Amino acid sequence: MEPIVITAILKPKENMADQLLTELNTVLIASRAEAGCVSYVLHQSIEDDTFVLHETWQDKNTLENHVATRHYQEYRTHTADLVEKREVFTLKAL
Q1: Domain ABM: where (predicted)?
Q2: What is the structure's pLDDT at 55?
Q3: 3 state DSSP class of 24
Q4: Which of 7, 33, 77, 94 has the fewest CB atoms within 10 Å, i.e. the most exposed one?
Q5: Are 62 and 27 in contact (CB under 8 A)?
Q6: 61 in helix, strand or coil?
Q7: Angle at 65 between CA 35 and CA 42, to 5 degrees
Q8: Residue 70 pLDDT exceeds 90
Q9: In the prediction, which pLDDT does 1 show?
Q10: CA–CA separation, 65 vs 67, rounded Å?
Q11: Where are the strands (E) in 1-94, listed by range?
Q12: At residue 93, does pLDDT exceed 90?
């Protein structure tokens, strides 16, 4: 199976950037420790508070395992009220 790349763009609600960053750092640490995580990098725009996650997973199965983890599910619950806009792209390298 081929590697799967996730690019997630998260725009926090007003005055929620710090809380969102805390949650992103928590899920980042746990996700990097997962089997099948090739890379998991968090970026922040220098123009505003937008965050961009760039993840690479060994294959589709490891990505599915990641989404099923407790830390990922908690991250989604904890950030539901912090994010104004979320765009997620599931990609493959060409």
Answers
A1: 4-91
A2: 98
A3: helix
A4: 94
A5: no
A6: helix
A7: 70
A8: yes
A9: 79
A10: 6
A11: 4-12, 37-44, 51-57, 83-91
A12: no
Q: What are the residues facing 5 on neighbouring strands? A: 56, 91
Q: State the pTM of this model.
A: 0.92
Instruction: Kindly report the number of other CB atoms within 10 A of residue 72's CB atom.
Output: 16
- For the segment 32-45, the average pLDDT, to the nearest whole number, is 97
The values of phi and psi at residue 49, to 5°, are -90, 15
Cα angle 4, 21, 64 (rounded to 5 degrees) comes to 25
Tokens standing for residue 12 = 């926090």
The mean pLDDT value for 44-67 works out to 97
3-state secondary structure of 28: helix
Query: In one letter, which amino acid is 73?
Result: Q
